[in-house]
C-alpha cells in the first residue's frame, strides 16, 4: 500500500465517526429485530411458511425484495464505476427488462404458478426426469454458493476503505446478522428485511445524487462534460464481438442473462408462489422490472456525476485509489464530508444491498438443497412439519457459515472472483436452455435435456 492510499484510509477512518457508525448499526439492529419478530413471535413451523411465506404475502414487499435481491453491493459500486470508465452504454440493458417481462409473463410464470412447487427444479422432474432435476439443482447450488462470498466481499472492501476496519472483522459481523434473520425468520423475514434495507440503499443514492448535482452546478453541465469525454453512448451498433459494450452485447446478451435471474430462478419462482393469485404474481414481476430500471438509471447517472467530478483528475491515474471499484466510495467520502451521517448511510446502503442478495440467495439455495437432496436422503423417514422447518434452518446456517468462510479466500485469491462470476454465467446459460426446452418444446425428452445441459456447460467452460 502506498503512502497516498494510506492517507486516504486514515482520513476516511477519521471521517467515519460516531454518527456514521450509529447509522450503520441501526440498519443491522433493525434487521436483527425483524428476524426476532418472525423467528419467535411469528414462527415459521412448516416448509410452506418457511419457504413461501404461507403463500399469502403482499405484492409490495415481495416486489421490493425481488428487486433488491438482484441489486447487490457489486451493482451499487460496480455500475457507477463501469459508467465512469466506459460510458453510459450499460444503461441500454434496461430495454432487456421489457423483453424479459413479456417473455416471463406469457410463458414461465403461468406454468410455475399453476404448479405451486416448493422447488422450481421439481418442474424438471415432472417434465423430464429425476436425473435432470438433480443435475440442474447441483449446477445452481454450486454457482450460487460460490457467488454469495463475492457479493459480500465487494461492499466489505468499500467499508474497509472508508473506515479502515479490516474485512476480517466486518464480514463475520454482517454475515452473522444475515444468517440470524434468514435462518430463523424464513422468507417473511427475508422479504421484510429486504424492504427495510432498500430504504437505506435508495435514500443514500438519492442524497449522493442531489449533492453531486449541487457540486457540479446543473444537469446540463454534467451532460456536457460527459459528452466531451465521449461517455454519452447508448446505441453503439458495432457488431464486433470483441468490443466491450455494444447494443448487441448489453441489450441482447442481457435478455438471456436476466432470463436466468428472473424467469427460471428458484428465488423468483419462490416469490411468485408467495402471493395468492396469478394477477398478484404478474404485479410483482411488473414492479420488479420498474424498480430495477429505476435503480439502474440512478446508478448510471451516478457514474456520470463521478466522471464529471474527476474528468480532469482521474483518481486511478493519480494513485488515490488502485481499482475502479474504489472510485465510488472515494467520491462519496468527498461529496459527503460536510454532511455527518451520509457516508454511513451510503455504506449502510451498500451493505444492505449485499445482505439482500445474500439472504435471498441463502433462503433459495437452502430450499433447493433441502427439497432436491435432503428430502431424497431422508426418504421413507417420517418427519413432522416442525422438524422439516428445523432441518431447513440448519441447512441455511451450514451454507451461510461456509459462504462466510469463503470471503477471505476471495480476498486472498483474486482468481476465485473470476471463477465465481464465470461459473455463474456458464451454469445459468445451461439452466435457461433446459427450462426453455421444457416449456417451448413439447416433444423434447429427458435424454435430450441432460445431454444438452452437459454439452452447454462443457462448451461454455472451454470458452471461458
TrEMBL record:
GO terms for cellular component: plasma membrane. It is a multi-pass membrane protein. CDD domains: SLC5sbd_NIS-SMVT (cd11492). It is found in: Cell membrane. The chain crosses the membrane at residues 12-38, 59-78, 90-113, 134-159, 165-187, 199-225, 284-310, 345-370, 390-410, 416-441. Signal peptide: none annotated. Its main location: membrane. The keyword Manganese does not apply. Keywords: Cell membrane, Ion transport, Membrane, Sodium, Sodium transport, Transmembrane, Transmembrane helix, Transport. Gene3D superfamilies: Sodium/glucose cotransporter. GO terms for molecular function: symporter activity. One of its GO terms (biological process) is sodium ion transport. Belongs to the sodium:solute symporter (SSF) (TC 2.A.21) family. This is Sodium/solute symporter. It comes from Cuerna arida.
